[in-house]
Amino acid sequence: MWLNVGRGLQRLNQRQCCLFPTVCARQLYNSGTELSDSGYDVLYPGHINTTPIQKALLAVGSGVAALQNPYRHDMVAVLGETTGHLALINLRDRMRNDPEGYTVLTERPRIRLSTLDLDMMASLPDGSFGREYLRFLEDNHVTPDSRADVKFVDNEELAYVMQRYREVHDLMHTLLGMPTNMLGEVAVKWFEAAQTGLPMCALGAVLGPLRLNASRLQTLFTSLGPWALQNGRRSRCILSVFYERRWEQSLEDLRQELNIEPPPVIVSATNKRNI
Questions:
Q1: Are residues 132 and 141 in contact, defined by beta-carbon separation less than 8 angstroms?
Q2: In terms of CB atoms within 10 Å, which of 20, 30, 38, 74 comes out highest?
Q3: Closest by Cα among 72, 62, 93 to 161
Q4: CA 200 to CA 268: how far, in whole Å?
Q5: CA distances from 89 to 162, 219, 238 (A)
Q6: Average pLDDT over residues 99-127
């Protein structure tokens, strides 16, 4: 019986994914080259064309894997790509309706080590956005190159919107003054959920607090959480800023321009492990 069911699913799924969604998600995620060369329409480098059934399997499998291990960034990335279509359309439209956001959409800048002038940023004065971003990277031992490339978004422009969201995530940490420990990541996720509407962010905002101890949970619900939600709702679209042209700007001036208030409490940079 199970053999027949397995054969039926294999015929339905042309990539012969495993019956278990988590394994299917991992197989599809790691098979970009094979699928890109198999005659499918490739919209952008690395794109993997998937059917609605495959996307559903990917969403379920990556969701289960992310719940089991929130540090599986590959599975969190797949979950965001397979569940965020409507939110990405809304973000794209907000960028189109903003002059600076439209420039970002047109020029498609990328935030990678290869595109950053680290020496110039290190020479900027303390308090400048570029210097504080570089300090965040150094203090938390993170790199923008850790952000995965988009694979499963079946629209080239929306794929860039998702890629831009990933690459400005560390900039949000800098703007919000949040480290990369669990409390800091949850606070950023609350902000991003209110700001972007991405289901992946909402899921992280709901489940992230389950991993906090009692004292940090109290801090989240009494001060950081309300602050993050309020700022996420009222601030300018975070994807509509050409950050690469703002390195010399004062961090405080940029916060005021984006309508982001400084955090109500200082979160110590301990337990530096990303969600």
A1: no
A2: 74
A3: 93
A4: 26
A5: 10, 34, 15
A6: 96
Specify the amino acid at residue 172: M
Least confident of 20-29, 134-143, 151-160: 20-29
- Give residues with Cβ within 8 angstroms of 253, minimum separation 6: none
117-139 pLDDT per residue, tens: 999 999 999 999 999 999 999 99
Q: Do 81 and 162 touch, CB atoms closer than 8 A?
A: yes
C-alpha distance across the termini of the chain, in Å? 40
Q: What residues pair up with 250 in beta bridges, in sequence order?
A: 128
- Do residues 105 and 177 make contact, with C-beta atoms less than 8 angstroms apart? no
| Cα-Cα-Cα-Cα dihedral sign, residues 158, 159, 163, 166 | positive
Residues 6+ apart with CB under 8 A from 27: 15, 17, 18
The Cα 142–Cα 120 span in angstroms is 19
The residue assigned the tokens 């961090």 is 251
Whether pTM > 0.85 for this model: the answer is: no
Task: Give residue 160's region: left, alpha or beta (phi > 0; psi -120 to 50).
Answer: alpha
Note the Cα 253 to chain centre separation in Å: 25
